[in-house]
């Protein structure tokens, strides 16, 4: 896909929910062209996903140390794990699922009140179309910056369903705490001082919420819900659909299906933690696939370092045996989407 020509402004495209409603033929623009990671096979195996108990992680007993070992092994192999006992009540997670579904179930006219402007990322709609021949994803989403609070663009925050804002607010503050806890344990599992990653993460992390809606797709073998990518975050916390599977993770050039575990949170390492850990913790390539029968809704909380801070491998993880693998990156997110939409990995640009 190297030869994609950039477009000066977002040219937009029809919402997938509208394509389904109107019964349109699916354009070839949705057909996945990047086969660098292989085609969608029918027989992708289910992954034996690591499960980390966050309550046990905080204990100073032998069990705590064992759990820390599990965290380290999960993140240096898969780059993700299911977090259980994370402290968020099931009732709050149920509410997050509920308001997400209620929002996507609203009439198009009502949802369009929060429509993304052509030059904006936040808002309801689809992702920007920045390149001619860009492969389109079978995904409508509402994308909202939730932290720092002063940067929120409230005009895009749904007021319908009524409790949407309140639930999102609560879920944001809880996710923020979990991300900070996890950064502490990620440092600890590499024998670093607890604040080693948190220092680079900063006091004003940038957090986006992304509500993903994937309608049933008539061409599931050819069309992806989200093209293969790794997240540009420090950490992503994903609330999966409770019933419909669709996420796949790449490991050693093979795809694996991520199983559903109700009320667990799927934690995915982002590129910026891979950089800070000098490659010891992996930011995994993943994709969402589609299916022809059921719609699927997921909610991702993208937790990234405060803007303007240099992100670089921490000194303790660089030595003669393990030289520095990444250059210093600043405002990594700023260029993320350009690479993403070309099917490229932004982390390759900062690799030494
Ligand atoms: O919906 C999913 O399962 C994956 C979402 C995802 O990877 C993303 O939003 O970056
Ligand atoms: Fe992702």
TrEMBL record:
PROSITE patterns: FE2OG_OXY (PS51471). Transmembrane segments: none annotated. Keywords: Iron, Metal-binding, Oxidoreductase, Vitamin C. It comes from Nicotiana attenuata. Belongs to the iron/ascorbate-dependent oxidoreductase family. GO terms for biological process: coumarin biosynthetic process; response to molecule of fungal origin. Pfam families: 2OG-FeII_Oxy, DIOX_N. This is Protein srg1. PANTHER family: OXOGLUTARATE/IRON-DEPENDENT DIOXYGENASE. GO terms for molecular function: 2-oxoglutarate-dependent dioxygenase activity; L-ascorbic acid binding; metal ion binding. Residues 205-305 form the Fe2OG dioxygenase domain.
